[in-house]
């Protein structure tokens, strides 16, 4: 590498230039350079594929991006399928295994991504043919291997589990369900069940239907001219077969009649995620598209907006407060959002609503409008730095049926907007009284303060309503317990059982997990072993007035408090012992457990630790038990064993294990002899 | 007004590169007050990026007052003697610009991208906050609250959000890299206004900064304005406190469990790295690409695709001026014990240490690096940042054009060597992120 340094003496004029600057005012801008909008070349192949080419040889790179224009799809009981299409496309072709594809893509330093409506490839110019070869192999010859789908399902299930703890994921799920309802492509959400329902055939059918050139646009951008692009397009994309693609339509949701306040209680939260949202009609081709851009910029479009200035710079409630007005050809949403200090949750909502209302009622100032125009023009100008912008403009114009001069007159149209235009849009589109106010935060700390905004509706972390039903006046905790004991065969019969051995088996990732339980109530002893492939993975033992937990080769004796908590699980039928142990019972309404109505019973031991049991309203049987220590245990498949009804299926959901553990009872015996060895 | 020295030179560098890396032309000059000015001209779009890099980060802080550099990132948007409170962001945005800033362990970086006819305004504004920012109690009190929420949003309330601070705290027993950039909220509560003023005087001065102007400019005009607005700013102290602490080599693995609000366990392994400008940095960066960069990388292929024990795995060389960490994290797949996954990760590391990297894979790494470096300088904002960091971290602005050749000097055997030398099991930090068996869920 060669370096030539040229020393240049400074010119005297430079010295004169800085003699004095006036710091009291901003410098006058120089005359603005006109923003030049380059043109995209375009042509259409015989199969209907529309191709756009933008040449920019600043860097020796080329990008090919293929996008499909179709109506949104309601996935129903297969929700999550669309999210897997891209990875499935890259899961192997009739020419290359997935390993070969991955290797060949990486080898040329390229990137190739696929989604349910796109395939994108980019590489250095010198590798463009190879990149196209790989891209079109994925497009024409995917084989959708079963094992790839199994892997993706597993990853999606893991991701879904993780998202249940992520405040932003929780709030966006809730927003989508409230705004669009479950039965709309934008409102449905994937669940464990819908992910498990997805089959290779579904993916294939989707691919066959929608990956068609007649609904596709291809942008070729970078170090390439039209002639070369045309040659490549013909070589690689002319053989793609066209086919009619179905269209779909959906009902348009409307904003709620009054504000709805929705809370997801996330006990671990140290701040609250607050959103104000509602559905609205807005798209690129809508006559109010530009006015709503300006309107949103002033309300919450950036760090000079009213929301940001009020909630962050004035009040210090948050790191940032923003709003957005979407654009979508089916249906868009309005959304204002901030992650705020817990103690300021209600104040933050008040301020957000205030800002929306104030803007609607009192409009914008001329100064704000000018600043917004300048900023949006600037951002338009900056976007042109990237050559793909021009290609996107050309594609959008076709895709959304925009007028041919939509982008070339964008800046003029923006500059012509008046205060009255924006104020009218504010009245038409801002709905501070017809919004969903969604909050994810610590319910204990904030629920009460939220009541100021109306009745607080509670939702779970999947966006489903939490349901509580009032209880009949003459039912109390005692009678629920009596009903339960009656249902399993009677208290007397249950009391006769003093010892028990139970073994159950669960399967996790193809591995067998054995769980054995030994109860010796006369000696107040209990043992629970979990073993994996013959090895004991964990052992909880209660005897001689203490409890130890052994796991991963380490033993730990529990503290007195933990011991008291552990004792709550050492009885075969704990309900028989509540009174004797000095536990207090509190009946807390009716909840739905796996679709069945159940009495919720809070059982507290003398040290304050609680277990919550749920007993079926219909059958009286115990459906679920949960505690901080052990997580949630669901009981089902009750069968009679020696005259007592016993649940043969126990499903454990615990924060300590990533997926529900389905334990099937294989052996259960009552009043058997318990030896010393059993309790080791 | 101070007099100009005629001895200043502009240097135009015409480096010729044999590789695909597109050469970035630039001119640079050091003003009398020590401010280094770098300019890059590209008239294709009428925009210009203006940035000031201050060579101060969390490592320069007093251990009793951590979080100051980041606090300043916020404070310097509050206003100056001539620019009113709250006006800074408004002004830049209302002339059609965008702006932001970030703070790292080593530097604080402020930038704006504005229409090119507004270059003078951007320079005026950056010079204002270097010359006389307005630091008052209202600003301090507000930003203190904002930063507390930033911390909650970015770390405390975010699943796995504490990985970096928890790792650094253990990876550095002596070096100031041990405390997080966002600092201690207690320290910020205790800090008096005067302390903030003093901190500014010590670091936010021309001779500790690089001003970069990249975009639709004419060199003469840009330099003239840079001089007009910055030359009068008094030079700061002759020297700056830069911690001269060498982190002692660990002799034992540090292993801990962090209970977080998560459902899926994660494993973090971190190994201390040599200083950023050390020649092994290139081999370590290639090693990280070999391990987890791309779907065909060793660990992604084996752990995510084949064994399916991990949902994701990533190796990130967090290279810092005084030596950062090689951070590896992986998120376990459903039902996989962290210990099981960790064992497999360690097996793969041992494999590289024993067998090295084969010729084809080495060629692949070179191709990936070439592609990444070409793409690195695709925007004016990116070029401005890369130019100023080249000057500050490598002492030579033209490093921006030499990076690829530095990578080309790495030999295949170097990857195996650095894997052995730096990824040592007895000097690492291992953290298990496990779910908090907390509140009952209803």
TrEMBL record, chain A:
MF-aspect GO terms: metal ion binding
Name this polypeptide is given: Putative Zn-dependent peptidase
Residues in the signal sequence: 1-19
Domain Peptidase M16 N-terminal: 88-172
UniProt keyword annotations, A-Z: Signal
Source organism per UniProt: Mongoliibacter ruber
Peptidase M16 C-terminal domain residues: 198-376
Automatic annotation (TrEMBL), chain B:
Domain Peptidase M16 N-terminal: 37-182
GO MF term set: metal ion binding; metallopeptidase activity
Keywords: Hydrolase, Metalloprotease, Protease, Signal, Zinc
Boundaries of every Peptidase M16 C-terminal domain copy: 193-368
Signal peptide location: 1-20
Pfam families (alphabetical): Peptidase_M16, Peptidase_M16_C
GO terms, biological process: proteolysis
Superkingdom classification of source: Bacteria
UniProt keyword Disulfide bond, yes or no: no
Family per record: Belongs to the peptidase M16 family.
Name used for this protein in its record: Putative Zn-dependent peptidase
Organism: Mongoliibacter ruber
